[in-house]
TrEMBL record:
<protein>
    <recommendedName>
        <fullName>Metallo-beta-lactamase domain-containing protein</fullName>
    </recommendedName>
</protein>
<dbReference type="InterPro" id="IPR036866">
    <property type="entry name" value="RibonucZ/Hydroxyglut_hydro"/>
</dbReference>
Length: 129
């Protein structure tokens, strides 16, 4: 059982992460590549707030992780500009719910324009939608 104390702290046991010590750190860059608008507030939280039916446009981020060795990993949570060509199930879900994805550029274009060519990315982690 978890108890929240009067000062807002939790009595829950903290998990042992067992992360080894290191003197190396990564550079993390957040790229706001797109947004999704027209998301019903009821899809995000309950109970409903009277008068608040549509949430503000939500960003769709991509994270560029750069290691001092030069290795680059892209954690891609973004939406491509031709979202209509995503899987038919995803497109249908967006349209059914009234979501309006919007992206002016694909992440590859953003990287190229920033001088980080897509060919320099060593790995991409992405979510399947």
């Amino acid at each position: 059982m978890v108890t929240i104390t009067a000062d807002g702290t939790s009595t829950a046991a903290k998990p042992a992460l067992n992360i080894p010590r290191s003197s190396t750190s990564l550079t993390v860059k957040v790229i706001d590549v797109a947004n999704i608008s027209n998301v019903p507030a009821s899809a995000l939280f309950t109970p409903p707030v009277p008068g608040y039916t549509i949430a503000a446009p939500a960003p769709s981020f991509v994270f560029l992780l750069e290691h001092p060795s030069g290795q680059k990993v892209l954690f891609d949570l973004g939406i491509r500009k031709d979202w209509e060509n995503l899987s038919p199930a995803t497109v249908e879900r967006f349209k059914k719910l009234g979501h309006k994805p919007s992206a002016e550029k694909n992440i590859s274009e953003v990287l190229d324009e920033a001088g980080v060519g897509k060919q320099s990315i060593n790995a991409v982690i992405w979510r399947r939608v």
